[in-house]
Task: structure prediction
Amino acid sequence: MALTSASAFEYAPGVPGNPPPNAKPDKTFLLVADEADVVIDEGIVFRAFVFNGTSPGPLILVQEGDVVEIIVRNQGKYTHGLSIHAANTQTSKFVGNIAPGSEGRLVFKADFPGVYMYHCAPGGHGILTHTLAGMYGMVVVEPKSGSYLLERQLGREPDIKVYLVQHEVYLNGRDFFDGKAAYVMFNGKVFRYVGEPIQARPGDYVRFYFLNVGPSLTSSFHAVGGIWEYSYQGGNPSNVAVGLQTVTVGPTDSYVIEWRVPAEGNFLIVSHAFGTQAIKGAVGLVASSVNATRTPVVLPQGSSQKPDGKVKRVVAPFEPTSQEESRTFLPGERAVIQIVGNSF
Result:
């Protein structure tokens, strides 16, 4: 397996994000690109492209100022790659267009704190469609301690950290092209945190790291019975807003949100785009009670649950239309054939 070396590559001096000369990484991460069936609901299987076996892939968590090394290993049947939005440096030369059985290596300096997306980037139209196929995840660059206002005011870390990725699944390329999602979800499963509520106590300090990877829909993230005390666009402490009812988050945008649970009871967390997103799965619960055993951390990667023999539906956007969805044309009828959105 050949690694692409950055040793002979020229970087502009003084630009934040570029790796320092001969820098040794503070953090190293391995992303394994592959294809797999993932469970997104009871009996619903998504025939996905994945990092490390799940969709979304694993959390990449670093500190502001870290030198970060990412190794991408392609164990799949198709060419894959990586675009990492936390890197303000050349990436495609090193981790773009990685053939099956090959590896790529990227080194960068995490100079900008915030919440970022990473996704497959094999090049060309495949960048769109491999994102359609579920190949993405979250990067968090934590700022220096005490940078977020509520943490500074309370003098302590959050009681609960929730890393939340919103994303959608499409049945086929046509629906992807038209923006008609079949399912919209948090962290890999439809209505995941309705079935697995986030446990909290009244007064708990909760920090959400919220990322909308899309690939197409704009989220309106809201807590029923809650007002976000402090919201930081992009997750950067410099970009603060106070007292928001929702945060509006386009594809690949993000927020860090600080909130204290006001009382006992259930608090719905939801994309307030009810008809296009909430009804399709972008709903969860923070369940608050005095004696709750807190959920200290919610991680953003998808479920590792394997499909069983009770499969009711397979969502496979790159496969031919099912027999039930096929149409028969009679002699003399005009047929228009269009390949849309699902070339990978």
Remarks:
- The domain at 27-142 is CATH 2.60.40.420 (Immunoglobulin-like).
- The radius of gyration is 21 Å.
- The CA atoms of residues 321 and 327 lie 10 Å apart.
- Residues 1-6 have pLDDT under 50 and may be disordered.
